[in-house]
Amino acid sequence: MLSVREITPAEHLAFLDSRRSASFLQTPAWGRVKAEWRHQSLGWFEGEKLIGAGLVLYRQLPKVKRYLAYLPEGPDLDWADDDLERWLAPLTAHLKGQGAFAVRMGPPVVVRQWSAAQVKDGIADPAVRRLGDLAPEARDHVGARVVSQLRELGWRPQLAEGGFSAGQPQYVFWIPLRTADGEQRTEADVLAGMNQLWRRNIKKAEKSGVEVRTATAETLADDLAAFHALYAHTAERDHFTPRPLSYFRTMADALGSEAPERFRLHLAHHEGDLVAATIAIRVGGHAWYSYGASSTEKREVRGSNAVQWAMIREALAAGCDVYDLRGITDTLDADDPHVGLIQFKVGTGGEAVEYVGEWDLPLNRAIYQAFQLYLRRRS
């Protein structure tokens, strides 16, 4: 019989340090980043032994003390277990006692994977419109079993859309940094896996004199301000709403104080001009490209490719298993405006990956239905 109870951030972090990989959204530090949510670290115990952990974010409904309990890209437990109910029943009982009207989680479990070559061919084929139209290169039986068990237990799959309901991406694109037998890949091997355009742009940036450096503790405040100015410029050009500088300062402080490798800001300069900047995050053997910005001027010096290559090399040097370029949509329709993003990432020679996605479990059906109606009206 498993039990779930609150644990300290130190206990939570110690558990994560014993794992090869966990989402940065499940670190204790992420609760500090999401200050508008109440947060709590939970532990799964078998007797007195801690065998699982998760970060819960509680989002309060307007005017009432009822909460959506959210575990982004978590929790971190044994998803290969044939009996997920023994893990999830004590979780939902605890959250109900905390005033939750529903639970939302995103199990970090892969379902299907497609190679870069498959995705490229799919985009070129007019008959193919989505990743699901392609036979995957690999299927994960654990992922299939998790989906089946969640449905049987009454959980509901969610579609990640805009606004409050926007969750974490179900589809991502990553570059494996180890071979199938677990050997670390070399820089030359990763570079050879990229398409000709990516390799040419990396070489062009080097020949143009683009220099990439990493912010230090002494330069971080000024470098974050420079990054944010370029990020705001990027947002105006690409028509998205930027986060405030204060958000990135909080992220840098919270993640950076938890572990020195957790938050890394990279800046690409050309003849003194900042042409690209990115934020990388690392937990164990998993490295993520989190945020990026680029200048409209001097795009020909390929600062964005240079800074990506610098982050990939850093992940390789750290012995990481994967470099994760984060979310993509599942569209392969050449006329879809979102296809450009996947084409950019496909050039790295990595893999498109589908997770099981986010799932809801209503604990109070009346409030949950009202909440769903509220979301539909907002969107």
Q: Beta-sheet strand percentage?
A: 25-35%
Number of strands: 16
Assigned CATH class of the largest domain: Alpha Beta
Described by the principal axes of the CA atoms, the overall outline is globular
Order of helices and strands: EHHEEEHEEHEHEEHHEHHEEEHEHEEH
Keywords: Acyltransferase, Cell shape, Cell wall biogenesis/degradation, Peptidoglycan synthesis, Transferase
Protein name: Peptidoglycan bridge formation peptidyltransferase VanK-Sc
Family: Belongs to the FemABX family.
Pfam families: FemAB
Give a structural overview.
By secondary structure, the protein is α+β, with helices and mostly antiparallel strands. Helix 7 crosses helix 10 (303-317). Helices cover 37% and strands 26% of the residues. The longest helix has 19 residues, at 220-238. It folds into 2 domains: 2-106 and 358-378, Aminopeptidase; 178-320, Gcn5-related N-acetyltransferase (GNAT) (Aminopeptidase), CATH 3.40.630. It has a 9-stranded mixed sheet with strand order 7-6-15-9-14-13-12-11-10. The protein has a 7-stranded mixed sheet with strand order 1-2-3-4-5-16-8. The protein is globular. Helix 10 (303-317) links the parallel strand 13 and strand 14. The chain has helices spanning 9-17, 28-33, 85-97, 116-124, 141-152, 187-193, 196-208, 220-238, 245-258, 303-317, 339-346, 365-378, and strands spanning 2-6, 38-46, 49-60, 67-71, 100-105, 110-115, 138-139, 156-157, 171-176, 211-214, 263-270, 273-283, 286-294, 322-327, 351-355, 359-362. The chain has 12 helices and 16 strands.
